[in-house]
């Protein structure tokens, strides 16, 4: 992952966006279809940088974009992130 990327999802009424670390390959795949996914409100699986998959209901997303991986804070799907809770 040369330019670490993040899928940033904003939900209505939620002040903090959801952040998912994604690979360059996933960013390229999503780049061409992200607007259509949000417009159509479809559900799609997204591959995270650590190899895990998340399923996103784009019908609940207000805005979405791909940005740089933040240096501070918690990002789902980042390599090396330890699982907590029920596993």
Topology:
Layout: E1 5-11, E2 18-22, H1 24-31, H2 34-40, E3 43-47, E4 53-57, E5 61-68
Antiparallel strand pairs: 1-2, 1-5, 3-4
Polypeptide structure, described:
- By secondary structure, the protein is α+β, with helices and mostly antiparallel strands.
- It has a domain at 5-64.
- It has helices at 24-31, 34-40, and strands at 5-11, 18-22, 43-47, 53-57, 61-68.
- The strands form two sheets. A three-stranded antiparallel beta sheet has the order 2-1-5.
- 16% of the residues are buried.
- The model has no long low-confidence stretch (mean pLDDT 85).
In quaternary terms, these chains amount to single chain
Task: Let me know the number of strands.
Answer: 5
Query: How would a crystallographer describe the biggest sheet?
Result: 3 strands, antiparallel
Strand order of the largest sheet: 2-1-5
Provide the low-confidence segments as ranges: none
Number of helices: 2
For the termini, the CA-CA separation is 26 Å
Strand content: 25-35%
Q: Could you estimate the helical fraction of the residues in percent? A: 10-25%
Mean pLDDT: 85
Order of helices and strands: EEHHEEE
Q: Briefly note the structural class of the backbone.
A: alpha+beta
Form type: globular
Using only C-alpha atoms, the radius of gyration works out to: 13 Å
Key features of this structure:
alpha+beta; 3-stranded antiparallel β-sheet; two-stranded antiparallel ribbon; 5 strands; 2 helices; 87 residues
């Amino acid at each position: 992952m040369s330019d670490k990327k993040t899928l940033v999802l904003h939900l209505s009424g939620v002040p903090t966006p959801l952040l998912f670390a994604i690979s360059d390959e996933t960013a390229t795949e999503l780049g061409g279809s992200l607007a259509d996914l949000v417009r159509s409100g479809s559900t799609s699986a997204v591959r995270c940088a650590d190899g895990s998959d998340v399923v996103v209901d784009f019908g609940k997303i207000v805005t979405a974009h791909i940005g740089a991986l933040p240096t501070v804070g918690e990002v789902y799907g980042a390599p090396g992130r330890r699982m907590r809770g029920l596993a």
